């Protein structure tokens, strides 16, 4: 039911033939998505292949629970955050890193899409929920 949109394109669910987001919220979300995509493009070059391959191995290990993989993803994001310029908000960098890692993992092993997507949502809900709500509400309408 959830959608992963990282390119600023329209996302949402249709109810009675209408998109489930108000036009104002949709515009705000599009602006935020475009900003995050730009940051993601910059950070994408910083992430080494071994980091992605390590995460892929964790996702492929069916003995690991979603919680265990989420914890591992959180550790990886915290390690990568050290290489991010200090002028960027830490929460924003964490959010973008989680999305970039998700993209890289799914590009490496497309069959992991469902598991990676659910884990990323779980991570974002646990670690970044308040930040995301604040970011959306802080945008001018």
TrEMBL record:
Protein localization: Cytoplasm; Mitochondrion outer membrane
Pfam families on file: BID (PF06393)
Native source organism of the sequence: Notiomystis cincta
Keyword terms, alphabetized: Apoptosis, Cytoplasm, Membrane, Mitochondrion, Mitochondrion outer membrane
Location, primary (coarse class): cytoplasm
Superkingdom of this protein's organism: Eukaryota
Gene it is expressed from: Bid
Gene Ontology biological process: apoptotic mitochondrial changes; positive regulation of extrinsic apoptotic signaling pathway; positive regulation of intrinsic apoptotic signaling pathway; positive regulation of release of cytochrome c from mitochondria
InterPro entries (UniProt xref): Bcl-2-like_sf (IPR036834), BID (IPR010479)
Protein name: BH3-interacting domain death agonist
Keyword Mitochondrion: yes
CC annotations in GO: cytosol; mitochondrial outer membrane
Keyword Nuclease: no
